[in-house]
Automatic annotation (TrEMBL):
Zn(2+) binds at C48, C51, C97, C100. The active site is at C120. This is Peptide methionine sulfoxide reductase MsrB. It comes from Limnochorda pilosa. The keyword Metal-binding applies. Residues 67-79 have a biased composition (Polar residues).
Amino acid sequence: MAGKFLLSDEEWRKRLSPEEHRVLRRAGTEPPWEGCFVGTKEPGTYVCAACGNPLFKSGEKFESGTGWPSFTQPISQDAVTEHEDRSHGMIRTEVRCARCESHLGHVFPDGPPPTGLRYCMNSVAMKHVPQGQPIPLVTE
């Protein structure tokens, strides 16, 4: 992972669409089954929509039946961070981009082997980079 990429809220608002800002910077959630990556199976890498940090490989993606793209594990242990989330009357584990601290989704302990985890992500929080193409890491 490249160094941290942190901006002010005003700078994020200039860079992100209103929906991206709501999800990535305000910990929102897109409606189930509406995200563009729910059923995709194309090889490649899913990167943070805010900063380009590589997050998940397409080979770790699986159909969870939840309405959000789901993965068994991140691309590396330092790609994401996990935080306790007590919003909405629940206790969950929030997943954020380790580079820019953007909200990506949540991780649950009900996934398939080998990890038993389900990283349930918002499509709007990610971009897909097709296999063989360079990762467009944001640096400014």
